[in-house]
Each structure stands twice: as structure tokens, then as C-alpha cells.
Amino acid sequence: MKRQKIIKFLGLVVVVIGIGVGGAVNIALKDSHNEKPKTVQETSQKSRLRLTDQQLSILVGLAMDPKWLTEQLNSNQLVYGVVKPSDTVPKGIGENESFLIAAGERQRIIYFSVNEDQTVEIKDSQNNQIRRKKEVTVRQLVRRFYQTSKQQQQVNELVSELRTE
């Protein structure tokens, strides 16, 4: 049985279930304002929030360099993709890692992957060299950039502006 992480935000309990097909992060939400113990049936009625890999890529971009992210999106240059075996990547970048890159600007690429423990490993590369590494949890990204309905709407609008490779 996989271990679930339970966190609280906005009066909800968030249970991080795991990574689904296509890299979607499965998160289950339930109301934490109700202090009485929940029965099994009530607990199974909780709603689910699924982050797509593209949504996660926007959260990663906001965590690493929000100015660069918005500049690239505003100029319709930001591209989301997944590393393929034929790609030339810096040492330490694995196959199937996701990335953000500015179209036509191969100097900077932000790579990321999500581990089973919901840790997001982010590698910021410039000129095919990893310049900066950062680890955050999906929970931290959600808390910082995807907590309110306004933030969710903004992230989803940014996702709609992403180009895909």
C-alpha cells in the first residue's frame, strides 16, 4: 500500500495519493471544518483535484523564475515537453523528465520530475549545463501558487498559453 501524505489548506485536508497516468498528480480533498469523525462512507465522498503535468510545469516555472515564465508566455514562446531518448540534454537529466523552454532559445531549459514521495526535483540549465537545482514538494507548490480559486484560474490560463513540443 502506498503511503499517503495529508496536508491542510483553505480549511480542506489534502491527501496526496500519487502520480497518475501522464504524470498527473492525484490529490484528494475533504472538508476539515467538520470536527466530528468521518465515517468510511463520508470519507469516500471527498472531491479530487488532479494537477496535469502542464499545470505542474507552470507551478515549477513560478517557483524558479516567475519573471522569465511570464515574459516567455506573453511573447508566446514558452514550450512544454518531455525529454525523449533522442534529445541532447545535460548530464544528470533523465529520460521522461518534463521541461519548459523558450522557443528558439535553447540556452535556458527548466527540467523537472516528481518522485513517488511527491518531491519535485527541478534543474535549471543554461547552455546545456545545470546551473541550479531545487527540490520542493508538490504540496509546497500548491500552497504557494495554486491555493486560491484566483490562483487556480491564473495557472489554468497560463497553461492554456503553453505550447507543447
Describe this structure in words.
The chain is of the alpha+beta class and 165 residues long. It folds into two domains: 5-51, no CATH class; 53-164, Yope Regulator, Chain: A, CATH 3.30.1460. 28% of the residues lie in helices and 39% in strands. The protein has five helices and ten strands. The chain has helices at residues 40-44, 53-64, 66-74, 138-145, 149-161; strands spanning 5-9, 12-19, 25-31, 47-51, 78-82, 98-102, 105-114, 119-126, 129-137, 163-164. Strand 1 (5-9) and strand 2 form a beta hairpin. Helix 2 (53-64) packs across helix 3 (66-74), helix 2 packs across helix 4 and helix 2 packs across helix 5. The radius of gyration is 17 Å and the shape is globular. Residues 1-24 and 26-48 have low confidence and may be disordered.
Quick structural summary:
With 165 residues, this protein is an alpha+beta fold. The chain has helices spanning 40-44, 53-64, 66-74, 138-145, 149-161; strands at 5-9, 12-19, 25-31, 47-51, 78-82, 98-102, 105-114, 119-126, 129-137, 163-164.
The number of domains is 2
Helix content: 25-40%
Rg estimate, integer Å: 17 Å
* Structural class assignment: alpha+beta
Number of strands: 10
Mean pLDDT figure: 76
Strand content: 35-45%
Can you tell me the CATH class of the largest domain? Answer: Alpha Beta
The helix tally amounts to: 5
